[in-house]
Amino acid sequence: MQKIALSSSLPQAPAPACPPRAVVVMGVSGSGKSTVGELLAQRQDWAFVEGDAFHSDENHAKMRAGVPLTDEDRASWLEALGLELARLAAGGVVLSCSALKRAYRQQLRAHVPGLVFIWLEVGRDAAHRRVAGRGDRHFFPATLIDSQFATLEPPHDEAGLLHLDSERSLEELLAHATEWLQRTPHAHP
């Protein structure tokens, strides 16, 4: 007869599954992430963080001049965004951020366990048209759109992701995002 050792400590119960309280609306420039992110935050009654506001003056100047950012340019920006997400996550937060590479998304996830992403996918022509339509109101020129698509590592196989076609109506995007957030449980740390 085999003896089974009994442990004196009880197993830890898994953390309760709860809807996420921190989400990044991601995509290339012109995908609508700021518009969708801000309206989604209003619907959820959460804080909204505009990722572009956290770029350094040097990064803004580079982009205005039509020079694509490098991983090094983005490193301190992503760190600042991660810290801001962590600071606001308990109360609920939506961040608009390109998050183009898997490594960038992982850097943000390291700050907020359970962080989820909504990827607004847009076609190259639509992105060009949207960004060109901004005129001088924005620091990001349409000439940089191609560099965004070249940098993008689509998050097709990543967990905690909603993939939406950003050329759908704003109301459809918000409805899908809201419904997904309500039915997407994750374990809070």
From TrEMBL:
InterPro entries linked to this entry: P-loop_NTPase, Shikimate/glucono_kinase, Therm_gnt_kin
Catalytic activity: D-gluconate + ATP = 6-phospho-D-gluconate + ADP + H(+)
Enzyme's top EC category: transferase
EC number from the UniProt entry: 2.7.1.12
Keywords: ATP-binding, Kinase, Nucleotide-binding, Transferase
Gene3D superfamilies the UniProt entry points to: P-loop containing nucleotide triphosphate hydrolases
A Pfam short name: SKI
Pathway: Carbohydrate acid metabolism
Assigned protein family: Belongs to the gluconokinase GntK/GntV family.
PANTHER family tied to this protein: GLUCONOKINASE-RELATED
Protein name: Gluconokinase
Lineage: Bacteria, Pseudomonadati, Pseudomonadota, Betaproteobacteria, Burkholderiales
